[in-house]
Amino acid sequence: MNFLEELQWRGMIHQMTPGTDALLQDGMITGYIGFDPTAPSLTIGNYVQIMLLRLFQDAGHRPIILMGGATGRIGDPSGKDKERELKSYDELDHNLEFQSRQFARFLDFEGPNAAIIVNNLDFYRDMNVLDFLRQVGKTLTVNYMSSKDSVKKRLETGLSFTEFSYQLLQAYDFQCLYTQHDCRLQMVGSDQWGNITSGTEFIRRNVDGKAHAVTTPLLTKADGSKFGKSERGNIWLSPELTSPYQFFQFWLKADDADLRNYIRYFSLRPREEMQALLDRVDEDPISVKAQLAEELTVRVHSRAAYESVLSVSELLFNKKANRDTLLGLDETSLATVAQEIPSFQIERDQLAAGINIVDLLAEHTSIQSSKGEARRSIKGNAIAVNKEKIKDHEYRVDATALLHGKYLMVENGRKNKFIIVTQ
């Protein structure tokens, strides 16, 4: 696979330095992308850059993941209209360790072009402030640095020296990777162009070398909003922060106008299969979204997680879902269900002696507004506990009914589903 030709077909090239195409035809080269560990997990916003590294590696090149153990402590001013709130060192170290493990799902760390993870804190750990000012700070003028968009946009609202210096650190990172790993290419989003070209300038001035850069367009939604967020906030690549079901639903609910971009940016299907999906977007967008959602859920989480997503979807949306459907869900899937439908919490000890169904509906939860309404619903055959209809208003629910010792599903008619979670 020709890396640049593949990016061009996918619409993933915004800018690149002259000579980059020739460099990439010169056998296996090493390139990098930096990730600052300021968040507890990678997000699908990061996944654009992860895809760049994956396509780069699939084309036979060696990717470096540069974790910002140092730059994360400073704060990148790019795209921000105010100063970032600095994270504690402990939080950054924890995030870095967790994110480093996440990359194992997406890149190959064995073989002739095995991926490498580097922590840029190693470049600065033994450097004092005077060494930094002499070795790094003398390379670029304030005029040169101030001309970059990431700086110019902040001069009126205010920019600390701390964030102003971020450009120097990112540029020196590139120089260190160039000298230590023969890394000659940096890849990143288009908002980082100024920082990247500062890095190529470092390499030219300080080590008389030639380095290159490629940027991708910033991916936004058709409505202009930031990609990677939902009404619930960030879409994380960690199942603890965004469940596989919520991850799947993000792609399923995507705007039809965004679908072509999402296929080109994120699918790893053979090109002819991707083109077939692209050709069907207008006539059958729902099916195309389902196929993309399946591909990405399996890749980011697992095939088992995807199967669990299907089970949860069947329970929530299939009118033919029965008791076997419910009993077939594992504890993780039931926890997902509890996030998607109204839920109530009660103490497990309260179920030890059993709770009258009418009291459960009207007093221990607000499934019904009154005991009278609860009795009428039972009489009308509307109430089910764990998919079994309740016909007697004297029925008692006890701990033996709990699924996985924790969950109880209650339905009031076909559409109103609730989960009771015991503590």
Would you summarize the structure shown here?
This protein folds into three domains: 3-216, Rossmann fold; 229-317, Tyrosyl-Transfer RNA Synthetase, CATH 1.10.240.10; 341-422, Structural Genomics Hypothetical 15.5 Kd Protein In mrcA-pckA Intergenic Region, Chain A. It has helices at 3-10, 20-24, 44-58, 89-102, 121-124, 129-137, 142-146, 149-152, 161-164, 166-181, 193-207, 244-252, 259-266, 271-280, 285-300, 303-317, 323-327, 331-340, 357-364, 371-379; strands at residues 15-16, 30-35, 62-67, 116-119, 183-189, 212-216, 229-230, 233-234, 343-346, 355-356, 383-385, 388-389, 396-397, 407-412, 416-422.
Describe the structure.
- The protein is of the alpha/beta class and 423 residues long.
- Helices cover 45% and strands 14% of the residues.
- It has 20 helices and 15 strands.
- Helix 10 (166-181) packs across helix 11 and helix 19 (357-364) crosses helix 20.
The CATH class label of the largest domain is Alpha Beta
CATH 2nd-level architecture of the largest domain: 3-Layer(aba) Sandwich
Strand content: 5-15%
Uncertain ranges:
none
**CATH-defined fold name of the largest domain:** Rossmann fold
Count of separate structural domains = 3
Q: Bin the helical content.
A: 40-55%
Strand order of the largest sheet: 1-6-5-2-3-4
